[in-house]
Amino acid sequence: MALMITDECINCDVCEPECPNDAISMGVEIYEIDPNKCTECVGHFDEPQCVQVCPVECIPINPEHVETPEQLLEKYTRLQANKTA
Length: 85
Prior knowledge:
By secondary structure, the chain is α+β, with helices and mostly antiparallel strands. It is 25% helix and 7% strand. The protein has a two-stranded antiparallel ribbon. It has helices spanning 49-53, 69-84; strands spanning 24-26, 31-33. It has a single domain (16-84), classed as Alpha-Beta Plaits, CATH 3.30.70. The model has no long low-confidence stretch (mean pLDDT 95). The relative contact order is 0.26.
């Protein structure tokens, strides 16, 4: 279940540096989350850090990218292996 940023985003810049997978970047108008990099912080933290810091609560689960906790952990493992390669 990758997360997504809705159009309620106020571009406050607090979510991007909190993402341990570098999945958040500035899009055309608002910040965006790359579903291929988002693990909902599985492997890093108990809760998604971007959700914790968002002042307008505009980061829900992306219904187009539903993943189990096991799949998120597998993605985390793959991303970490790519960082060291």
